[in-house]
């Protein structure tokens, strides 16, 4: 559970990072910055801040801010209603992001997530500003910001985050504010 003050602090952090990167957001977008701790109450290590620009039946575009070392936990986008799961492309705008997917594990991974016992995908892709990677539907993946934090644009097919399947059984997709 996050306090209202923690949510506002995370929104302000994200808004400042957008401004520093020259990414203009409107006041309604700033007020709607989603802060997710994935139900673990450890936002600085496991979580993210994001804006959803558009999410229709066909496409989705988001802007994600990650604090230094902050991790989006391991998950997959499964299909629903006969549709394949979400295909998503991450493009790094600022900073470095370590993306992990299924495949040959890195010998010495650069990322170190909290609750490491719940991470099984260790094929490492290092993305720096201007680089991108596409994750196919129903592929186990997770990502972590480098030491300077990061801003990531996500372009995908329709987002149905509420159906994501997480490896960690304690994950809750919706943040509780108390």
From TrEMBL:
The keyword Ribonucleoprotein does not apply. It holds the Pfam family Lyx_isomer. GO terms for molecular function: D-lyxose ketol-isomerase activity; metal ion binding. It catalyses: D-lyxose = D-xylulose. Keywords: Carbohydrate metabolism, Isomerase, Manganese, Metal-binding. Its cofactor is Mn(2+). InterPro entries: D-lyxose_isomer (IPR010864), RmlC-like_jellyroll (IPR014710), RmlC_Cupin_sf (IPR011051). Its EC number is 5.3.1.15. The keyword Manganese applies. Belongs to the D-lyxose ketol-isomerase family. This is D-lyxose ketol-isomerase.
């Amino acid at each position: 559970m996050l306090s209202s003050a923690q949510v506002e602090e995370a929104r302000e952090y994200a808004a400042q990072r957008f401004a520093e990167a020259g990414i203009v957001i409107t006041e309604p977008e700033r007020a709607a910055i989603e802060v997710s701790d994935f139900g673990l109450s450890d936002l600085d290590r496991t979580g993210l801040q994001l804006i959803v620009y558009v999410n229709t039946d066909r496409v989705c575009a988001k802007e994600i801010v990650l604090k230094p070392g902050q991790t989006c936990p391991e998950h997959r986008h499964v299909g629903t209603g006969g549709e394949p799961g979400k295909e998503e492309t991450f493009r790094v705008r600022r900073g470095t992001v370590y993306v992990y997917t299924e495949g040959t594990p890195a010998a010495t991974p650069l990322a170190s997530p909290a609750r490491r016992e719940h991470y099984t995908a260790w094929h490492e892709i290092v993305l720096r500003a201007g680089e991108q990677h596409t994750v196919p539907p129903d592929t186990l993946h997770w990502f972590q910001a480098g030491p300077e934090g990061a801003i990531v644009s996500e372009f995908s097919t329709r987002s149905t985050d509420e159906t994501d399947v997480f490896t960690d059984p304690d994950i809750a997709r919706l943040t509780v504010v108390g």
